[in-house]
Specification:
The complex is a heterotrimer of chains A (193), B (799) and C (241). Chain A is α+β, with helices and mostly antiparallel strands and 193 residues long. Chain A has helices at 2-21, 31-39, 91-94, 96-100, 124-141, 169-182; strands at 46-52, 61-67, 73-78, 109-112, 120-122, 144-146, 152-155, 159-162, 187-188. With 799 residues, chain B is α/β, with parallel strands linked by helices. Chain B has 24 helices and 37 strands. Chain B is globular and about 80 Å long. The chains are: A alpha+beta (193), B alpha/beta (799), C alpha+beta (241).
Chain lengths: 193, 799, 241
């Protein structure tokens, strides 16, 4: 059924060029305007780094372009030289630029006091110091040296940790090292669920 | 994955079961499509017709939670029709092993069941041993006590009619599935499995996977190109985070967390170092003490590993019921924890039974929440039904850099460790997680140095500067430490090394503290040759290119071996079963192996193929699991039937559950089977993707998919808001009424199934809905503790 | 050499990489959407959505097909929308690539709806913020810089292809022959007339009314689609309205 319509379209299109397109020149939009976004990918204007997608574990390669002017991302797309994805990305991977350039990212550490109905902005150093004190106080007040059977266990049973498969390998190792040196045993993350 | 993404293209038959690869691992379909273009058949088995099904050559449906009935039936079909790859089965699996006399299986219960404690005494499942202490074998597979015969006996109950009756799969589909997949038992055919949470999130999760692994062994599909057992892992670094063992039961490199009974390093090593009396068994884990000593040395550089072993906390047991996720939240609800780190995770939406999870958080004194965006965990105190003025929990929210703003490595599902470089600066001076971890622990360490405290040595003596340069977290230095280096001038295997030299591979690790390695599995990833994970070369030999190994691109554990168990891809002389898709090939005593890095360099036939197993064989009979050596069909803890056709034991008798929590079994209030899943456009709890407008534009709100038949029954129109409820909670969702779901006929009765994505949460978008985990039960697999969020009971009604 | 897209719908998994990649490259804002009982969202093309994956379920003899149609401007070989142009330069028909590019001059057009009305595929839309008439521009900036259009670069399965026209038409014919083994009703749509050639596995209307050229909707314009098509006296579908 489409043969006829295809022929028809060919005819119609030919007619259109005769009636409407005659005489129109090209170049009404300057080449510079057309090429603007692609030009920004040039090493003159942006640095290019490779990364790997932060979503699923296929591990697709990314090319990230960062503006040399303000060090912010200007484009993120699939790495065509990556053997797994060969430049391809799904909807999530294709949106990673928006993850970085996002107004909903909090710009500061936040602290919620007991029974408070809101967060307040605090400095990182203030928060880390206070967290460190909390950890020490909690750990010290109920450190389990021996279990009920009298076996030495040297563990901290009143702090738990969840996370994270979103961390890099080096961060995972650092995190497990921190937790285990504190004596934590309730350590879980995404792999469990 | 035993294999890797590109390798999917080498497959002749791809079974996608327990996953929805086209939606949840979309780029995997590049390689699935390539396989199809090469003539492969793709089969999708799933309760729904999904985006994956649209591209499959065959789609068959089953009621959620009945996979073992179908896979058990496939084992029976393979054995009944003698479709096994016999040479492989005899030489590489434990089919010939003789099972000990204590083993029994009666009416759904294995030998050694302790009904009071709901555990098994696994010693009852031991093999019969010969005088040398090796398992007795019958290579003719005729001994009625051999694994092959026991397997036959176990699955003789799994007849087509019974499977159809309980799973709801059409008989014609079932036969076609068996015929098609079992055809990969030929030496020149490869079949593979792509599974994910659709298999793990059940009270029989581990046994779902074991069933398939057994099928793969019977068909000779493990170790070969286009074969294997392939878990499509979720998070971008969930492979790496598991390898580095952010889990209660394991330490980096899958070493075991010490138990209270192991009071010295020697006692600990002894328990976890298997001994084989068969010289042909490589028994790789015999190296355990080298790995444990090197790990301790990486954490506490200046201590003798014998001493620093005491610094490691000891568990009372290794049981998931005592420490894993669901139990952790049960104990939190009881008030055991004062502090919680929720670091790069959103448990308020991701764990099963969200209402319980969220209420448990109110019992905490403090919480540290590190994430990219505001989320339901850090903000739990102002969530639905919460009164902030009554919640004591102090919350610290630490925003962090996103992945493209920092440097480091992640490991994909195919075990490729890939280096990421820093692109843009994080806005507002936000820091990477690594910096936050380093700075926090530094603060704690200083505090203990200054003030002392409970058992301060593990903290004060921790070699924390081993991961930092000039007081700043250094991913390269950390990666080098994970690989490991020599702590003094040493000679190993005739080679001399200087103190500080990177260790070439785990074969060089030592027990005496002369080597440190943060994770033996990653030893070989950052060597004298540099950062192997950052490699970008596409160069490969013709043999490697033939199956797409890419050995010079990134790095892969272990020791850059791209296909695990590849000694099983060749016969006892080292010739590939399928020369057209050879993984490795023995080329003689001088030139040795060609192709992939072999599973050990020994000549063919010198060692058994499965080098990580104590006896060296693939385990058709698996006596190490908590719930039985053979997979058995049990119903989910919430189900629409009172009985099933295989035994009178309805549920997994050792499933993880909390007795005071009600379950809906044939409960008329909750007559519909419910399940949860993901969509291509969102990620896990949706925390990252819900905040990306382009993705929320594409999938803006929680939905519940249901058949046109069910919608008609309930008077529900497509696109209208409905209420979905379970024993545990209720939420609204937009009804997607679709022909892609069909009612099942189960035991002669019509059973409907519905499904929801678990990507939404109340913080954002405001009209997006809440987590589907409000509906799911605190019930889990007895081996892993993974919650049963793929099969539970619900109801749907007009809102 | 002029360019052409070949889009093999038998390989589309609706991962929607193309839909997002288009917005990412062009930095187009998202629309506020609601779930309307479908996974397709936004519901339609718009002034800020130039590429949209449409979803449709059809069932025949108990066999379900879920059809995906990544929709975009077809960059007609001889574009009928030129007929709607009154401000010279509001449409540029690039000789080198064949791309049909709407420029900012479209904002000066009096009858902007005429562009959509003139399109046999119902593509052009008005961006209410800029007043411009908009649609896919073949990523002309990328193509001129030797890159693939964003949607093609991101496609995982080989559904989206782009290149020299003769190569794409050859690929289309080859893919059609292959596809017909599994889908006997597979065909190429309007291949001679457009630079975005779709391979469908079943009749085009099952995907979407406007997947193949349509003349059913009468809209205002210098020449409606119906008039435009009818005056040539050829058989066309959907002449009922």
């Amino acid at each position: 059924m489409h043969t006829n319509r295809r022929n028809f379209l060919k005819l119609s299109a030919t007619a259109a060029v005769a009636t409407a397109f005659g005489g129109l020149g090209l170049g009404c939009t300057s080449k510079e305007a057309i090429a603007g976004r692609a030009d920004a990918m040039d090493p003159k204007w942006s640095k290019q780094t490779t990364s790997v997608c932060c979503y699923c574990a296929v591990g697709c390669g990314l090319i990230v372009n960062t503006s040399l002017k303000d060090n912010r991302a200007i484009n993120v797309e699939g790495d065509p030289d990556h053997p797994i994805n060969e430049g391809a990305l799904c909807a999530k991977g294709a949106s990673i630029w928006q993850l970085a350039e996002n107004d909903r990212r909090p710009d500061s550490v936040l602290y919620r006091a007991p029974y408070s109905s809101k967060f307040k902005k605090v400095s990182l150093s203030w928060a880390l110091e206070k967290i460190a004190h909390n950890v020490k106080k909690t750990r010290d007040e109920a450190f389990t040296v021996v279990n009920k059977k009298g076996q030495k266990v040297n563990r901290c049973d009143n702090i738990a940790s969840l996370g994270s498969a979103a961390l890099d390998n080096e961060e995972c190792w650092a995190f497990q090292t921190m937790l285990r040196s504190l004596g934590l045993v309730y350590i879980e993350h995404q792999a469990r669920i | 994955m035993t294999n890797h993404w590109i390798d999917l293209k080498n497959s002749d038959t791809i079974l996608i079961m327990g996953s929805n690869a086209a939606e949840n691992h979309p780029i995997s379909f590049k390689w699935v499509t390539k396989a199809q273009e090469n003539g492969a058949t793709v089969i999708h088995v799933d309760p729904r017709f999904t985006r994956t099904s649209t591209k499959a050559d065959m789609h068959a449906t089953l009621r959620s939670g009945t996979d073992i009935s179908i896979l058990g039936g496939m084992i029976k079909y393979i054995l009944d029709n003698d479709l096994i790859f016999k040479e492989y089965v005899v030489n590489y699996t434990n089919a010939s092993f003789i099972v000990g006399d204590d083993y029994t299986f009666e009416d759904g219960i294995f030998a050694g069941f302790d009904s009071k404690n709901k555990t098994y005494d696994k010693s009852k499942w031991a093999f019969a041993m010969d005088a040398k202490g090796n398992p007795k074998k019958d290579p003719t597979l005729k001994d009625p006590k051999c694994v092959y015969q026991m397997l036959k006996k176990h699955y003789e109950r799994y007849t087509l009619d019974k499977i159809v009756e309980i799973s709801g799969m059409k008989k014609a589909d079932l036969i076609k599935l068996y015929e098609t997949y079992a055809a990969t038992g030929k030496s020149d055919k490869a079949g593979t499995i792509m599974y994910a949470m659709g298999w793990t999130q059940h009270t029989v999760g581990v046994q779902n996977i074991r069933s398939m692994a057994m099928i793969q062994l019977l068909l000779g599909n493990i170790g070969i190109a286009g074969g294997g057992v392939n878990a499509l892992r979720g998070e971008s670094n969930v492979q790496g985070s598991t390898d580095h063992c952010l889990l209660y039961h394991i330490l980096p490199g899958y070493l075991k967390t010490p138990k209270a009974t192991q009071q010295s390093l020697a006692a600990y090593d002894k328990v976890y170092t298997p001994i084989s009396n068969d010289p042909k068994s490589a028994n790789w884990w015999a190296n355990y003490p080298k790995y444990s000593a090197s790990l301790l040395k990486a954490m506490w550089r200046d201590q003798d590993p014998k001493d620093s072993f005491n610094y490691l906390p000891k568990l009372d047991s290794g049981s998931a019921a005592d420490y894993s996720w669901l139990t952790l939240f049960d104990k939190m609800d009881e008030g055991q924890f004062k502090g919680l780190f929720a670091w790069g995770m959103n448990p308020a939406c991701s764990g099963a039974n969200s209402n319980k999870t969220r209420s448990a958080m109110t019992k905490l004194d403090w919480m540290v929440n590190v994430n990219i965006f505001p989320n339901e965990t850090g903000w739990f105190w102002e969530g639905p039904g919460m009164d902030p003025s009554k919640i004591k929990t102090e919350v610290f929210f630490l925003p962090c850099a996103v992945s493209i703003e920092k440097e480091g490595s992640i490991t994909n599902s195919g075990r490729w460790m890939q280096w990421r470089y820093k692109g843009p600066d994080a806005p507002n001076g936000l820091k990477p997680d690594g910096d936050l971890i380093y700075e926090l622990m530094h603060e704690i360490q200083e505090l203990y140095k200054k003030e002392g405290g409970a058992y301060p040595d593990p903290i004060t003596k921790l070699s924390w500067d081993g991961i930092a340069t000039n007081g700043v977290f250094d991913p390269h230095k950390t990666a080098k430490l994970i690989n490991g280096f020599f702590t003094k001038d040493t000679e190993v295997k005739g080679k001399k090394f200087k103190k500080g030299d990177q260790i070439p591979s785990f074969a060089y690790l030592q027990t005496d503290g002369s080597t440190c390695s943060g994770n033996w599995l990653y030893c070989n990833s950052y060597t004298a040759k540099g950062n192997m994970a950052a490699r970008r070369s596409l160069a490969q030999t013709e043999e490697q290119a033939n199956i797409g190994l890419f050995p010079n691109f990134s790095w892969c554990w272990p020791v850059n071996r791209r296909i695990l168990y590849n000694r099983a891809s060749v016969d006892l002389k080292g010739n590939p079963w399928n020369p057209k898709k050879a993984v490795i090939k023995w080329t003689g005593p001088k030139t040795k192996w060609q192709g992939d890095i072999p599973d050990g360099g020994w000549a063919p036939g010198d060692k058994y193929a499965f080098i990580m197993r104590k006896h060296g064989f693939g385990q058709l009979f698996g006596p190490g699991r908590a719930d039985g050596p053979f997979p058995e069909h049990y119903e989910p803890l919430e189900c629409p039937v009172k009985s099933h056709p295989f035994s009178s034991t309805l549920h997994n008798p050792v499933a993880l559950a909390f007795n005071d929590e009600a379950k809906a079994v044939c409960n008329p209030k909750f007559p519909l089977v419910g399940t949860t899943y993901r969509v291509a456009e969102h990620w896990q709890t949706g925390l990252m993707t819900r905040n990306c407008d382009w993705l929320t534009e594409a999938e803006p709100q929680i939905f519940v998919e249901m058949s046109t038949e069910l919608a008609e029954l309930r008077g529900i129109k497509n696109g209208e808001k409905v209420t979905v409820s379970s024993v545990r909670g209720t939420l609204w969702a937009v009804a997607i009424v679709t022909k892609r779901l069909k009612p099942f006929t189960i035991q002669g009765t019509v059973v409907h199934q519905v499904g929801l994505p678990w990507h939404f949460g109340w913080t954002w978008p405001k009209d997006g809905g809440d987590s589907a985990n409000i509906l799911t039960p605190s019930a889990g697999d007895p081996n892993t503790g993974i919650p049963e969020t793929k099969a539970f009971m619900v109801n749907v009604s007009k809102a | 050499m002029s360019k052409t897209f070949f889009i093999d719908l038998t390989k589309c998994t609706a991962c929607r990489g193309c839909q997002v990649a288009c917005k990412q490259w062009k930095k187009l804002p998202a629309e506020k959407t609601e779930n309307w009982g479908s996974h397709q969202n936004p519901k339609d093309l718009s002034g800020i959505t130039l590429k949209l994956v449409r979803f449709n379920e059809v069932e025949e003899d108990g066999k379900i097909q879920w059809l995906f149609f990544p929709e975009q401007c077809r960059h007609c070989v001889e574009p009928p929308c030129l007929d709607a142009m009154t401000v010279p330069g509001s449409i540029v028909h690039d000789k080198e690539t064949g791309a049909v590019v709407y420029t900012d001059l479209t904002a000066k057009e009096k009858d902007k709806e005429a562009f959509q009305a003139s399109c046999p595929y119902d593509i052009p839309r008005i961006n209410t913020e800029t007043g411009m008439v908009v649609k896919c521009d073949m990523c002309i900036d990328r193509v001129k810089a030797g890159m693939l259009p964003a949607c093609v670069a991101t496609c995982p399965t080989g559904a989206m292809n782009f290149g020299d026209r003769d190569e794409m038409l050859a690929l289309a014919e080859k893919s059609l022959t292959k596809a017909q083994k599994k889908y006997p009703n597979a065909e190429l749509i309007d291949a001679e007339s457009v630079r975005v050639v779709y391979l469908v596995q079943t009749d085009a209307d099952s995907y979407y009314q406007f997947l193949s050229a349509d003349a059913s909707t009468i809209k205002k314009g210098p020449m409606t689609r119906k008039q435009f098509l009818a005056k040539l006296g050829n058989p066309i579908k959907h002449m009922t309205s």
